[in-house]
Each structure stands twice: as C-alpha cells, then as structure tokens.
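Tutorial handout. Part one gives the primary structure; part two gives the three-dimensional structure as tokens.
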Amino acid sequence: MKVKLSILLLLLITFFSGCTQHLTIIQNNDASVDIKVNYNPGKNIENLISSFTNSTQLFDEKEVKDALAATNAKDITVNTFGTADIESNFSYKNNKAFLSNFNKLFTIQDNKIKMTISKGALKQLVKILPKDSNTYLDILMAPVFTDEDMNENEYISLIAATFGKSFSEEMQTSTFDLTIISKNGKQQNVAIPLSQFLTLESELTYVFEW
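Part two.
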C-alpha cells in the first residue's frame, strides 16, 4: 500500500529521514514563490521505509500532485525514482499563499525570512497528518515527538541498538539542507544535522536577510 501524502507529510518525511534532502525556496520579483524538493534516502533508511510501508514505492506521483494542488500550488511537477527518491517543483502565487501552508515554520517580513523549528510547531504539524505518517514517526522514536528527556548522543545510541550501527552512522552523516534565494538573486544556505533535528534540545532559529 502506498502512503497517501499531504504536502506537510512530504516535507516532514524530507525533514525526518534520509541521506540527502534539500529544500529550496525562491522568492521571485513578481511576488511568487517557487519550491524545489529533492529527497534521496540512504540505503538503510530506504529499507526501513520499505518494511514499514510493505511497498516497493513510497511516493505515488499522482497522489503527491493532488496533495500539492489542494494547497493551491501551481506548476506542479513530481518525479519518483526507486523506492523513495523524489523530486518535486511547485510554486505559490505570493507569500500569503505560501505561508498559509507553512506559517508555523516561516515568517516573512520585508527583506527577511525567518525559520523557527520548535517542538510545539512540529507537533502542531504532526496533528494534522494522516495516521499512516504517525506510524513512521513512531518508528524513529525521536525525542522531539516523544518528549523523552534524551540528548543527541543518547538518541544516536538508541538508534544504533534498535536498527544497527550502519543505520545510526547514516543518520549521523545526514543533514537537512535549506536554500533561500531572494528576489535580488542572493543565495543563503543552512544545513541542519538530522540527529540534532530529531532531538531538538533547543529551538532552532534561522534568519535569512538580503
């Protein structure tokens, strides 16, 4: 069975797993916003996804397109490869349309974009996700969702004991990469270690200015 996705689930999976995951947000001169998502899981995480979904393919292109269209996204393209690789490009007509879907993570003021990653914001997103996604998040046993008092090193040890050393090593080398490209073409990047993201011992705030 293929997992039915909302756009938030698509991004949460991008956030919470993988080897290579990149989110690009482009602010255009006509006020529109372009989004580019590239997700390529490592082999160990891909095997975990396959076992929990009981499927050889996580993403259904039509379902992803329909989910994106339901958020008023435009110019949608979706391409899937292998078990869980996906590339998707889509756009919103303006900042208001963009923020209506991501206002818990992003705020935009004049020449500034602020991204705030907090346990409260992530839990609010998870509450509106399909039940299938909660199963996947439960498997990861991430302190950011369980509220267990566990630091990053303790979480890595737990993952190693549960899924094996190679899985934990893959997680430690994984990052979530975000690129913001402003109207004037200025590009800013941030890379967040996945293990830090999943423990979230303190709120993460990033400000992009131009």
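Part three, for discussion. The beta strands are 20-27, 33-40, 74-81, 85-92, 106-109, 112-117, 175-181, 187-193, 204-209. The first strand starts at residue 20 and ends at 27.
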